[in-house]
Structure formats: structure tokens, C-alpha cells
Design goal:
2 helices; 82 residues; two-stranded parallel sheet
Length: 82
């Protein structure tokens, strides 16, 4: 990757290293929130996508949060500030 990577280019690199075919049927893999075209810049890698991880990513100016556990496994009907 040259220059500042996009979220999509990071996703591509991760799927090259860890093929999606390895995931179980119930695994929630891939981009859960955001846009592949966004600039990724720095990334925070963490186990859980919780409030503390998001706050830490923001504190360090990370444009991407990469987690082992997704913020939610099943579909949600809304993602709002409430």
C-alpha cells in the first residue's frame, strides 16, 4: 500500500492474510460500520468493539478499529446516538 490506506484496502489486506473462507457460517466478518472508501490512517486492534476501545481509538486519532469480536453478531434495526 502506498500513501494513506483506505478502509477497503485494509479489509483487502486482512482478507488476503485471513481468508474469509476460514470463517464459520455464523461468524460476523467484514466491515460492520463505515465505508470502504474512508481513509483509514492509523488503526487500533483490539479484542472487543466496546466503548473503551472506541474512546481509545479516538484518543489516538485512529480512523479504523479492527476487532476480533464484532460489536454485534445479529442484524440490528438502527444505529443511532440513542
Amino acid at each position: 500500500m502506498s500513501g494513506t490506506p483506505t478502509v477497503g484496502s485494509v479489509l483487502e489486506a486482512l482478507s488476503d492474510a485471513y481468508p474469509l473462507a476460514w470463517a464459520e457460517e455464523w461468524d460476523a466478518v467484514g466491515l460492520r460500520v463505515g465505508d470502504p472508501a474512508w481513509t483509514a490512517g492509523a488503526a487500533l486492534v483490539t479484542l472487543d468493539a466496546n466503548v473503551a476501545a472506541v474512546a481509545r481509538a479516538a484518543e489516538f486519532g485512529c480512523g479504523l478499529l479492527v476487532t476480533h469480536h464484532p460489536p454485534f453478531l445479529s442484524a440490528i434495526s438502527a444505529l443511532t446516538p440513542d
